[in-house]
Design brief:
29% of the residues lie in helices and 27% in strands. By secondary structure, the chain is of the alpha/beta class. The protein folds into two domains: 156 residues, Rossmann fold; 70 residues. It binds adenosine-5'-diphosphate and magnesium ion (MG). Magnesium ion binds next to α1.
């Protein structure tokens, strides 16, 4: 569960976010939308504590992330995986070593890291590429490695900031399908994109930011496939069938 209470974020006198309120229950799939500069990246950074709020409170699984000291952030990152537009893989390290970057920092030994890497790579369909180097992979495969790296500690929450920004439309669809699959296994997924044409499914949540304000909060109606406001709630699929 992620909760924002009257959250604001300023950079100097620039307002990046203002009066943001929402709750994301465990297991939801959320598209965070809005044009470039709307505040999407800032909002995500507040969740994984790369920034702290100027106003308001943010709870992740009941913990106030704004007050977590910097040195404890690696432990927060065990519950939150993050994927970016840039894959940021280390070129001279194998896929397996890239994926187990965090376990290495946390002191896991090599045999255990290999096991964890194999498990995470299987989830993204790349278990056969453990010993390859990033330069030997396609863009789509590199993004899958970055996703496996984010999944390494079996996070409850997966955050993706413009994860398809460097991929062509077909590969983008594959990567979105992979996020849907990860979500089906129970992980909360929050995916920020300025691209309004990405594929959606019924019951997915849409949060839309404009100039730092939340201007839309909807869930896709699984029956009509149209958006309905969250305030009304999704229809009961049994009652409407
Ligand atoms: N570190 C920063 N310093 C100053 N301004 C920033 C910083 N990060 C973001 N901003 C500003 O905050 C606003 C929101 O940016 P951002 O969250 O990156 O939007 P988006 O991800 O939707 O494109 C923009 O006006 C941006 O210039
Ligand atoms: Mg951004």
């Amino acid at each position: 569960m992620i909760q924002f209470f009257d959250v604001g974020k300023r950079f100097g006198d620039r307002v990046a976010l203002a009066d943001v309120n929402f709750k994301i229950p465990r297991g939801q799939f959320v598209f965070l939308r809005g044009p470039s500069g709307a505040g999407k990246t800032t909002l995500l950074k507040l969740i994984y504590r790369a920034e702290s709020p100027s106003e308001g409170q943010i709870l992740v699984n009941g913990r106030n992330v704004g007050s977590i000291p910097k040195r404890k952030v690696p432990f927060l990152r065990r519950t939150i995986g993050v994927v970016f537009q840039e894959f940021s893989l280390i070129e001279r390290r194998t896929v397996s070593d890239n994926v187990t970057y965090l376990p290495r920092i946390l002191g896991e030994r090599r045999p255990e890291r290999r096991r964890l890497a194999a498990e995470a790579l299987a989830k993204v369909g790349l278990d056969h590429l453990q010993d390859a180097f990033p330069a030997e992979l396609s863009g789509g495969e590199q993004q899958r490695v970055a996703i496996a790296r984010a999944l390494i500690s079996r996070p409850q929450i997966l955050i993706a900031d413009e994860p398809t920004g460097n991929l062509d439309p077909e590969l983008s669809r594959d990567i979105i399908s992979l996020f849907f699959e990860i979500n089906r296994q129970g992980t909360t997924v929050i995916l920020a994109t300025h691209n309004p044409s990405l594929r959606r499914r019924g019951r997915d949540r849409i949060l839309k930011l404009e100039s730092g304000r939340l201007v839309e909060d909807r869930i896709m109606d699984p029956i009509s496939a149209e958006d309905i406001p969250v305030a009304l709630g999704p229809p009961d699929p049994v009652a409407t069938r």
